[in-house]
Design goal:
32% of the residues lie in helices and 15% in strands. The protein is an alpha/beta fold. It has a single domain, classed as Rossmann fold. It has a five-stranded parallel beta sheet with strand order 2-1-3-4-5, with helices on both faces. Helix 3 (63-71) packs parallel to helix 4. The chain is globular and about 35 Å long. The model has no long low-confidence stretch (mean pLDDT 90).
Length: 157
Amino acid sequence: MPNDMKPLDSCDVALLNGPNLNLLGTREPQVYGADTLNDIEAKMMAKANAAEIKLESRQTNFEGELVSLIQQMKPAGTKFLIINAAAYTHTSIAIRDAISAVDIPFIEVHLSNIYKREQFRHHSYISEKAEAVICGFGAMGYEVALDYVLGKLKGSL
């Protein structure tokens, strides 16, 4: 993969984050909150480990890398995807096509309520393929997504 992105390891759940999410905690905290991506990932890993589910997390600022990570999910045995494609949500047909190609259920997550923001953020290329869309809950939205995924994987939903 370009830019030394680590390939996706074998996992039950992939957590993929798109551009600028590496800046969480300092980037517009009034919109995105004070939690860093490392904070979010640590909570997600702890919850997944407690449920004995293997979670792999990656963040990239590059559309092609995100597409490559999505394409790696089937060979990695991934059963579910949690994705915050960030700005690519509103622009990337390539990410939509990759998600469609792997045919793995997923939840789309956004920290902010995209419908209270600029008009261009109201459209998502991936929402209609998603099992659920979570927006406006800040970092807690990731945990809500993982709770749902754990319920699906454990057969309780």
